[in-house]
Amino acid sequence: MNEGMPAFYGDLFEQSSLIYLGLWATIKLTVVISITGFLLGIVIFFLGLNANATVRRLVEGYKSFFIGTPLVCIIYILYYGLPALGLRLSPFEVLVLGFTLNVGAYNAGYLLTAYNGLDKSQLEAAVAQGFKSLQVYAYIILPQLLKSSTPALTNQVIYNLKDSSIAFLVQYPEFFARMQELAAGNFDFFRAYLFAAIVYLILTTVIFLFAQYIERRNHWPGRR
What we know:
The chain has one domain (4-218): MetI-like (MetI-like fold, Orthogonal Bundle), CATH 1.10.3720. The protein contains ten helices and no strands. The longest helix has 33 residues, at 16-48. Mean pLDDT is 87; it is low at 220-224. It is an all-alpha fold. Helix content is 79%, strand content 0%. It has helices at 4-14, 16-48, 53-68, 71-81, 91-116, 120-128, 133-148, 150-163, 175-186, 189-218. It is a multi-pass membrane protein. It holds the Pfam family BPD_transp_1. It comes from Pseudomonas matsuisoli. Its main location: membrane.
């Protein structure tokens, strides 16, 4: 066992540049899908408040489909299915599209939960004062929802980071893919995957601590 340690760390050092690039690719993907999923979630939530029953049913159908369907299935449909329709996307584009559709559904659900806890009298007062629906949404509803939904939205970013590890399935050279290549080269799967787990743990801890800092700095209502 001790004989394997120098070989593993030697390979880790030799492939450090590729592993670094893989880590950067993971962070890049996580940041992009967190932003696009967040923005789509806001749009989906807003459409869910539409007075038109058909629009609301479509929104519920969208959320049910993407929340109820495994993410890897969505990614495979886009990666292997779209070329059959004449549309070819790069692995990164497939991942951004698939993750965005999935994450947007979850974020819309978080916002809806927070919305159900709002004091609706303030919304009625705003309408009585002549606010239009879009103004009520932008100036009254959304700011409060973002504050109360911060823990859930932050957790979603952490999920995005961890879920990005499936990106290797569509040939995207992210961190976990690089660690698999390292493990396949020296057959030291235990240390390779343990190292990957520690790196993911460090990244998720950074996200968690940053979220706590933002909450304390802005004194989110209902939060310590």
